[in-house]
Structure formats: C-alpha cells, structure tokens
Please model this.
Amino acid sequence: MRPNRQELIEMLSLQVKDEIDKLYKRAYEIKKQYVGTKVYLRGLIELSNICTRNCYYCGIRKDNHSLKRYNIDKEEVLKEAKWCYEQHYGSLTIQAGERSDNLWIDYIEELVKEIKTLTDGKIGITLSLGEQSEETYRRWFEAGAHRYLLRIETSNPELYRSLHPAENSFENRLQCIRSLKKIGYQAGSGVMIGLPHQKGEDLADDILFFYDEDIDMIGMGPFIPHHQTPLAYLLSTFNPEQALEQALKMIAVTRIALKDVNIASTTALQALHPKGREMGLLAGANVLMPNITDTRFRDGYQLYEGKPGLNENALAIRKALEESIYSIGETIGYDEWGDSPHFRRKTSDQS
Ligand code: 5AD
Model:
C-alpha cells in the first residue's frame, strides 16, 4: 500500500526525544520482521575521483582544482577485490566520479569481468558510477554487475535544479534509474538529508518516490557542507547533532514505510558521530559499506568534510566493524550477496 504522505510528514517532524526513540524502536521491529538482523557488507572501492560534473555540494566536483585526481589501476583494484572476497564480504561496490568516455566504459567492463572470473562468479558487484547511456548500463550488466546505485539526490525537481548546473537535468537522472530497472539491475537510489531549502514535505515525497519507482535498495545520508564547493557558506551554521538526528529519523521512517528494502547505514553518518553507523542500524538500516580502498587514495575522495577512516587500513576497519555490529546484537551475512528481499519477492512473483 502506498504510504500516507501526511503520516510520513508527521513522523519526520517529531521533536521530542522520547517520541523519536519510539520511532527508532518501531522501525527496528519492522526491520527484524522483514529483513532480519543480519547485516550485509559491501566492500567499497573508490575507484577514481576524476569527475566531469559540477554538483554544487560535492567535494570532488570538476571545478575543485585543489584536489589531486587519481585513478586506481586494474592490478590494484583486482587486489582489493580479491581481498574483499577472501574476507568473505560477499559483495563489493565500485564507486567513482562520473565519466562516460569510451576508455572509461571499456575499463569498467573489463574490471567487472575480471573480478567475476577472479572470484569464480561468487562475489556480487554493485556499481555506483553515475548517469550513463542505456547501452553502457547494459554492457556493464552483461559483464556481471547486478546492482546499481544512482541517488536521485532529491525527488523535488526544483530543489534538484538549485543544486546542479543546468545541463544535468532531473529528468535524465530519473530516466537513468528507469533504464537500470528495465535492464534487470537491482536499482538503488537515495537522497541527501538536510539540503538547503529542503522541507519535511520533500523528505516525505522522497520516500514516496522510492515507493513509486519501486526502488530495491536505499542509500541516504546527511548533507555535510564541503569547504571547496559553492555551498561552503553553509559550514558556519551546520549543526552536526541536528543533521544526524534528521538523517536517522529519515532512515527510520523509510524502514517503517517501505519495509522489505535494503537500507544502507552510510559513512556520512559516521562522519557526524563515531557511532553513527551503528545508530543507523538501530534506526532500521541493514547494509554497511566498509571502505576497502587503499588508504593512500583516501584523502582524494572527500565528498564532504570530516570523512572518517582516512588513516585506517581495511583490516582494522573490518575488526572495528565486526565489534560494533556484534555489540548491538546483530550478525554479519558473510559470503552472501544479501539482495534485498523486496527484489527477490518481485522476481519470485513473476515466476
Ligand atoms: N554531503 C553529503 N553527501 C554528499 N554526496 C556528495 N556530496 C555530499 C555532501 N557534501 C553524496 C551524493 C552522491 C554520493 C556519492 O555522495 O549523494 O550521490
């Protein structure tokens, strides 16, 4: 049933601490019932920070010239993928700035194929590489990627326009999400929470957008201003506690409304609080994306201020992650792809 907009707005606007805690508890019960308390891991490889776009909020935007640009070579990526496989993560995610030149398209296709071969077809591959043509999406799907993340960033077209240059249309982004689904990917989307001029109504509409577009997995996080972007002026009034609470409420309300989707507890939550990701799990998220990119590339991939984990290596991250998951009484879905029950339900309905 389509969630009720007014109820979503009311839940998102809760301010009293007790009521917010009750909201998290309710979301957690629904999570237990529909997706369980096993956390699925996706090792995250930040492949390159070269980007052709100029999104006003993003630290790796093209016009940020104070950044050293990098591109991890094939040998290194395969090493990281193998490590991820040997750690029993089950899935990995390849994320990068947006490029759509032929060299790049070929590189990704090759990488996906080789990672599949290297892991006997056992590791699940998610791509998060921005807007591409339907043909490109198809090539990468045929190479072996089966999930794709493309955040809509905000479902309000006017707000979207205020955050992106005119050549990056909301309509094209929406078309991309629809192409992904048509091809057969499990489609992930998401939004930033706490954007300038974003209202409670917009967030409620974001959840309705996920519902209407039949999104299988959701990655949302707080908007955090970055000093080398046009939105840097928002840094002086940025309130991390408030941003964290708003993001956690959004996760909880999304879980309550959509029930069986996968929801990631994103790194941006951890940037606001050392226990941010555990808080995300307790508010209804069920997926974590530990960064497995070699630490020497990390400072080049600062989408927002204070991104954590810059000096930790992947092994230390894994240990810390395990401890934090066990500490809240949850387990880890090692060696599993951890597809969203929402997607599985749909495919089994069709057969
Ligand atoms: N704050 C929070 N999230 C951001 N992203 C980009 N810039 C920021 C920021 N300043 C998110 C976008 C993008 C994802 C890769 O990172 O939602 O889709």
User: Anything to note?
Assistant: The mean pLDDT is 95.
